[in-house]
């Protein structure tokens, strides 16, 4: 049997899944100060009638790192940056305790300026004097050559072995120095807290005699093993929306263009599926206003949900974003969006009469017609959702393109279906779909789609290989991997593809996910002849392979 | 801080030929540099998606022989279209300025296009100028061509247009392709002085060019008062360029763009793909967005090695004096030309297409109109290896007068109804925005 638990901002959801059936579901309010205990409470609830031995796999999605970053409660971390020439240094002074060092690498991985040992030592003395125990070392183009990052790291390890170091090329090897700095810094900052969480979970499982594989859900909708998550705590940010989206896909399993809309009490999250595949944020997850190298779904959140209260001021109707409590039909004190849809469409949510009564009361006080009020609120809600959805379509259609082929074959998002999940979607999504003139679906178990999504998500893995035959090397954007290519070796695209596959398989084996390696697909293939004079001096390849988000083999859909 | 629009279109799947300077690799390292810097993530920068220009956008400028499809690939439409996206973003006020970092380039393409000249088929800047006029009603526009090669295509297209100020500085034509761009080339009889050439000695440095900018280009721009300034931004004045011999630096290019403050820049040439382009392109973007570029330097940069010679400064000062005078007497000169020349001003010239090996002969007749820039009739014959095309091109200026328009339409109608030996006859009616093409042998007319 499988367990999925999604620790969200307000609620923590859990499902127990086996034999293609949802066997149990749990919903608990989240205790922000003790996520671990909230999580274990849900786990114990799910295990109530089962023994821990029956569980084969547990997947956890948690807001731990998201919360740490949002509240800036991570460990104080120093940044050693090797910027080389380019943008002004101020651009990279994003965080406190930032030190700039000499040293520079160019786009071909050539060393342009060596590091200054004395300068590094001076910076380290200053950092040590401040009592800082975490350092992130990040160099521009370190993804093409990590020699200088390694040299600085070696000096740190040599002089201050107690300091924990994260280096850019190992944490985030894609092009984009700015995002590499942010990602590496955040990783260093949250690592201890994450390790502590991992230890606590391990202990709790032993105590419950659970001998299952434990995986962590990432922002890209895939999982990673708990035991390998220590170096990449940041990948767990925004796993909540990823869990919901994967849940929607799991519950529908259709290869069409759809809008997934998760309407909860206070917020609505919207994601897009293209041919059934979730759309990624083109610039990576954005944390605290900074772009990162963390692969995440493209999510738009609107501060509006079923519990959003209505107000009327001088005859102007508005939907507030601050939640005051549950809807009147569930005993709340003020009229909400849910009450409006409940009354207007006789949905029999909670106590329908209470919805009607509180709306009548509001209309009476403001001398307003009830039907008019309901129509106005519906218009506000639907328009807000629809505007956001249209913006997302446009944004995707207008993504920059770098090839003739991409521009000639423009993009158009033709939506075929709206999938509603979350507690309040059943009342709102049908109206939205009618307005947009598309089909909709509210799948069974839509209310725990997030936990189910986590439960059945499979591991993901992606790597990008950069080969430079003229300079005789290759680098991989994961874990600082690199190797040499014999000079003068003639390489074709197929050789590059094979090399990428070899590394993907090796990494998959290390993660115990080799059975998914056969599903790996090439998402990027670029090849350039390096011409000097009128002759070919070498070739440059960029090849990307990935095991994209999907479901574990055991999952074949939910039996009705 | 300024908000700057960028379209980066490296055309990674297009080349003239595999080892040609204009090949896939050209903007590869520029891609690496600007993406690694993370400049697209900065709040000052807004990246736009390229689009394809429409055939009509091209017909507004060029007479493509026999038709537009014969002269372009999809890459050309995207390169031209991207400039139009940037133009729209600037005109709509979404941004303060914009840079179309695109290939293929266009500044050697002339009005009549029989083939590829100097790596160019259609002229991106000219297409943008006519688009800006048609869509936004702009009239006075300045183009400053900062490519090391003379922008002979752009010069030819606006030769008779007094409302487009074309300034080109370039390595002296006696030492470099295309071998034109002398100070005597000042524009047609009704547009005298709105073409200004600044031929420079090989090895001219940042100091030399900034001196010219301060003392010639900027004063002329101030007096001309254009509604929009375009930088036709070649990057081959760089000291490392393999096809030219100048001594500019990335810093030099950045300062140039700060001083010039173009509303729109469009990439032209530049073939030092590793040592110059990544840094020069960064410099242009940073200058346009108002980002401090003091930390920008290319690897081989050594200020001590690059010194301006006193002899060259003397030459530059002389050139400034001559061109200022030429520019300032333009109105008198035009008035004089109107009196001196007959109703139709005629001239003859030869054009060579280096890339495609085509020889073209042109006879042009310009109406010496008293009210507008005058309509034009170009009789053009081109001989490629195995074929010969003779075409007649009739062009009405965008801000032409009704008489010139009527006369041009009459000439076209007359030709249509007469027996003649032209392969094609074209009418470019920019007032009505209608473009006709006639193949007399088959009596086939197409209208855009």
Structural summary, described in words:
The complex is a heterodimer of chains A (560) and B (448). Helices cover 34% and strands 25% of the residues of chain A. In chain A, strands 3-2-1-4-11-12 form a six-stranded mixed sheet, with helices on both faces. In chain A, strands 13, 14, 15, 18, 21 and 22 form a six-stranded mixed sheet that branches. The longest helix of chain A has 31 residues, at 177-207. Chain A is globular. In chain B, β1 (4-9), α1 (28-37) and β2 (45-47) form a beta-alpha-beta unit. In chain B, the strands form three sheets. In chain B, strands 2-1-4-10-9-6-7-8 form an eight-stranded parallel sheet, sandwiched between helices. Chain B has a seven-stranded mixed sheet with strand order 11-12-13-14-15-16-17, with helices on one face. Chain B has a two-stranded parallel sheet with strand order 3-5. Chain B has two domains: 4-331, 3-Layer(aba) Sandwich (Arginase, Chain A), CATH 3.40.800.20; 342-447, no CATH class. By secondary structure, chain B is an alpha/beta fold. The interface between A and B is large, with 41 and 49 residues.
Short description:
The complex is a heterodimer of chains A (560) and B (448). With 560 residues, chain A is of the alpha/beta class.
């Amino acid at each position: 049997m499988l367990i999925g638990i999604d620790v969200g901002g307000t609620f923590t959801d859990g499902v127990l899944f086996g034999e293609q059936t949802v066997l149990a579901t749990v919903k608990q309010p989240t205790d922000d100060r003790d996520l671990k205990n909230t999580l274990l409470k849900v786990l114990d609830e799910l295990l109530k009638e089962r023994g821990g031995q029956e569980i084969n796999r547990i997947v956890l999605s948690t807001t731990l790192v998201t919360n740490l970053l949002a509240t800036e409660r991570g460990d104080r971390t120093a940044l050693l940056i090797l910027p080389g020439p380019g943008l002004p240094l101020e651009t990279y002074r994003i965080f406190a305790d930032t030190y700039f060092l000499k040293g520079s690498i160019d786009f071909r991985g050539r060393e342009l300026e060596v590091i200054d040992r004395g300068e590094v030592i001076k910076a380290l003395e200053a950092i040590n004097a401040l009592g800082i125990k975490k350092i992130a070392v990040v160099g521009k183009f370190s993804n093409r050559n990590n020699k200088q990052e390694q040299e600085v790291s070696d000096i740190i390890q040599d002089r201050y072995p107690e300091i924990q170091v994260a280096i850019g090329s190992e944490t985030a090897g894609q092009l984009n120095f700015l995002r590499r700095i942010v990602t590496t810094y955040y990783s260093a900052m949250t690592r201890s807290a994450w390790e502590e969480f991992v230890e606590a979970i391990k202990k709790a499982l032993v105590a419950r005699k659970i001998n299952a594989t434990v995986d962590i859900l990432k922002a890209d909708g895939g999982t990673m093993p708990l035991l390998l998550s220590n170096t990449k705590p940041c990948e767990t940010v925004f796993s909540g929306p990823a869990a919901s989206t994967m849940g929607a896909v799991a519950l529908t399993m259709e290869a069409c263009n759809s809008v997934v809309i998760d309407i909860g009490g206070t917020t609505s999250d919207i994601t897009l599926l293209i041919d059934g595949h979730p759309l990624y944020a083109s610039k990576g997850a954005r944390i605290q206003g900074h772009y990162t190298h963390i692969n995440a779904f493209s999510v738009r959140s609107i501060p509006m949900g079923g519990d959003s209260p209505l107000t009327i001021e001088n005859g102007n109707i508005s939907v507030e974003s601050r939640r005051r409590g549950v809807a009147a039909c569930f005993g709340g004190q003020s009229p909400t969006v849910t009450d409006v849809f409940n009354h207007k469409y006789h949905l029999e949510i909670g106590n329908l009469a209470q919805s009607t009564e509180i709306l009548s009361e509001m209309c009476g006080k403001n001398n307003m017609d009830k039907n008019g009020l309901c129509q106005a609120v519906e218009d506000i809600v639907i328009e807000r959702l629809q505007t956001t959805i249209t913006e997302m379509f446009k944004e995707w259609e207008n993504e920059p393109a770098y090839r003739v082929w991409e521009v000639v074959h423009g993009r158009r998002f033709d939506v075929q279906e709206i999938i509603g999940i979350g507690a309040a979607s059943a009342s709102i999504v049908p109206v939205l779909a009618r307005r947009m003139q598309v089909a909709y679906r509210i799948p069974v178990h839509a209310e725990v789609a997030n936990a189910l999504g986590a439960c059945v998500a499979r591991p993901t893995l992606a790597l990008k290989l950069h080969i430079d035959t003229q300079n005789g090397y290759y680098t991989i954007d994961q874990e600082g991997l690199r190797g040499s290519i014999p000079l003068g070796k003639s390489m074709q695209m197929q050789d590059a593809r094979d090399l990428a596959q070899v590394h993907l398989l090796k990494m998959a084996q290390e993660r115990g996910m080799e059975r998914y390696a056969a599903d790996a697909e090439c998402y990027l293939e670029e090849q350039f002849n390096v011409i000097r004079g009128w002759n070919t001096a070498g070739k440059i390849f960029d090849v990307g392979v990935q095991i994209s988000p999907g479901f574990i083999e055991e999952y074949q859909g939910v039996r009705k | 801080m300024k908000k700057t629009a960028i379209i980066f279109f490296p055309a990674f799947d297009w080349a003239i030929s595999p080892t040609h300077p204009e090949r896939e690799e050209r903007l590869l390292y520029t891609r690496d540099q600007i993406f690694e810097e993370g400049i697209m993530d900065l709040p000052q920068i807004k990246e736009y998606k390229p689009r394809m220009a429409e055939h009509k956008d091209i017909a507004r400028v060029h007479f493509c022989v026999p038709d537009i499809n014969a002269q372009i690939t999809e890459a050309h439409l995207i390169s031209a279209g991207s400039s139009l996206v940037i133009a729209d973003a600037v005109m709509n006020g979404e941004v303060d300025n914009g840079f179309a970092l695109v290939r293929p380039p266009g500044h050697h393409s002339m009005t009549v296009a029989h083939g590829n000249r100097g790596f160019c088929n259609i002229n991106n800047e000219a297409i943008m100028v006519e688009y800006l006029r048609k869509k936004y009603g702009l009239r006075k526009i300045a183009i400053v061509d900062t490519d090391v090669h003379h922008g002979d295509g752009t010069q030819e297209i606006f030769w008779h247009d007094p409302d487009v100020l074309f300034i080109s500085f370039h390595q002296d034509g006696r030492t470099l392709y295309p071998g034109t761009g002398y100070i005597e080339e000042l524009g047609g009889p009704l547009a005298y002085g709105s073409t200004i050439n600044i031929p420079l000695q090989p090895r001219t440095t940042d100091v030399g060019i900034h001196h010219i900018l301060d003392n010639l280009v900027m004063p002329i721009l101030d007096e001309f008062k254009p509604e929009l300034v375009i930088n036709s931004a070649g990057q081959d004045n760089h000291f490392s360029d393999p096809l030219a011999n100048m001594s500019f630096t990335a810093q030099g290019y950045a300062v140039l763009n700060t001083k010039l403050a173009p509303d729109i820049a469009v990439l032209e040439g530049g073939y030092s793909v590793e040592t110059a382009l990544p840094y020069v392109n960064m410099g242009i973007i940073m200058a346009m967005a108002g980002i401090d570029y003091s930390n920008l330097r290319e690897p081989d940069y050594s200020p001590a090695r690059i010194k301006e010679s006193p002899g060259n400064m003397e030459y530059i000062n002389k050139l400034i004096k001559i061109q200022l005078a030429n520019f300032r007497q333009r109105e008198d000169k035009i008035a004089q030309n109107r009196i001196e020349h007959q109703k139709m001003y005629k001239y003859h010239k030869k054009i060579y297409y280096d890339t495609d090996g085509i020889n073209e002969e042109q006879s042009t007749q310009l109406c010496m109109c008293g009210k507008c820039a005058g309509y034009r009739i170009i009789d053009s014959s081109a001989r490629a290896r195995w074929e010969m095309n003779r075409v007649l091109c009739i062009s009405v200026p965008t801000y032409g007068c009704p008489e010139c328009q009527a006369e041009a339409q009459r000439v076209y109608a007359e030709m249509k109804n007469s027996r003649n030996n032209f392969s094609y006859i074209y009418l470019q009616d920019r007032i009505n925005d209608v473009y006709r093409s006639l193949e007399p042998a088959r009596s086939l007319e197409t209208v855009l």
